[in-house]
Design a protein that fits this description.
Blueprint (H helix, E strand, L loop, with lengths): L1 H11 L2 E5 L4 H12 L2 E2 L3 E4 L6 H12 L6 E4 L2 E4 L1 H9 L3 H7 L3 E2 L4
Parallel strand pairs: 1-3
Antiparallel strand pairs: 1-4, 2-6, 4-5
Helix pairs in contact: 2-4
Length: 109
């Protein structure tokens, strides 16, 4: 059933980043997330490489209120785009956010 599937997806990939390959803000966010060496690794969805990219953008906008990329979804909730992710990193809140969501941060930042 759908709720069981959602729980499985959530446990396998608690962090999903909707990105665009050519977007410098998406690249900045993906590079920053790489530094955390997260387990499980974030699932990166390159919206511009998909046939349903416009549909994904419409759904994300409706569900999260964000229409720009990147859009990082942690445990089903948007935690923001590049500016928010960078700010949480600088404020040393990002690691705790990941750990509270059950991700392992395998480096000391």
């Amino acid at each position: 059933d759908w709720s069981a599937r959602m729980k499985l997806l959530d446990s396998e990939t608690p962090l999903v980043v909707f990105s665009k390959t050519y977007c410098r803000y998406s690249k900045k966010t993906k590079d920053l997330l790489e530094l955390y060496d997260l387990s499980p690794k974030p699932r990166i969805i390159e919206v511009d490489l998909r046939d349903d990219g416009d549909f994904i953008k419409t759904v994300l906008t409706r569900l999260t209120g964000r229409s720009t990329f990147p859009n990082a979804i942690l445990r089903g909730k948007s935690i923001g785009g590049s500016d928010e992710i960078v700010m949480m990193h600088k404020d040393r809140r990002l690691r705790q956010l990941f750990e509270d969501a059950g991700l392992k941060v395998r480096v000391d930042l």
